[in-house]
Amino acid sequence: MKCGPSCWLTLACLGLLAGCSIVGEGAYGWPNNTRPHSYWAALGDLDGDGDLDAYLANGENEGVAPDTVWLNDGKGKFSGGEEQPDENETHFVTLGDLDGDGNLDGVVDATGAGRVAWNDGTGNFTYSSRYLYAEDVGAYTYFPTLGDLDGDGDLDLAMGGCCGASLSPPDEAGVRHSANLVWFNDGRGKLTDSGQRLGHAGTGMQAAGDVDGDGDLDLFDANSSSMGNDPAVSETNQPNVVWLNDGKGNYSDSGQQLGSEESYAVALGDLDGDGDLDAFVGNRGADTIWLNDGKGNFSDSGQRLGDRDTRLVSLSDLNGDGDLDAFTWGRGFVETWANVGDGTFERSGWIRLSIWEAAALDDVNGDGAADIFAGMLDQGWRVWLNEGVGGFVELRVK
Fold it and tell me: What whole-number distance in Å separates Cα of residue 235 and Cα of residue 199?
């Protein structure tokens, strides 16, 4: 009998998108949370009316809570909180049109494996019974990343493998290490495992972008911890890794070992204005900036930003000066960082959140500036509107 993802014995726990209409994603909840809560938020036009709605990935530590969908009135006010018909602990969700019908579908991380959630065009989802995982890979897969990885015009899937190893009964000696997976789309939403197993460094998040300027999507892994030969011993502070695409979705290790922090978040964007994609990496502790030489080789800028436990990074021009600023989310906080134009960042704002809230960054009121959305299961939402110069004002609803 084959062992699915929920029956493995886990020995140790836990960008830039192209070719799709993904517009936002958002937060992470910690395993010690015992009440039902929202792990992640994603923003996208779920009902086809032209504004950004919200999908909340919900769960409970070792339990389930239904995901919810909140619909936007176009001015940043959300209603509904409609429970979706699925019973899983969902940690992440990424939105994109997988089957080419014009609706934003989702890939959710449910019980440590991916599943596809099909949108009917009104924001109601139907969930595939098929789990996206591999029998030869242990532990969990996290943060599904969508993009056209093989250059055929549809959205493929990369999933980070994190953060340890598993034993699969009945062979208790059969240690299976985590690995990152790549799945190819047939254009109609059927995803097939490419057979690639990209590293064992404990990837908490990936970002997809063309880092070497050859026109295809490479992968930047934010890594934290993994297992070595002894599955009972965790190897922490694994370096981040860059994987280069041959144009057909086949990846090779660039050989770079970037940093020695526990990294859980990464976003790619041109931070220093030289036309290539740099990396803003969110860490446990100070965040780091890695600058690209244009050929996919990254160097440490030397900056150490903040001292929190960052789980999400989003990049956008928050203050209207033409360069990319940064939004970071962590346990109970949001920070914004202003780019002075050369990839050097200064703290520009701080918002305190509940640890139960998931957050996302994008334009929810249609004025062209990225706003902040925070949601908590079925218990409501909060929005901070961007004033256009980098300041945020909470939207008050009577």
Answer: 14
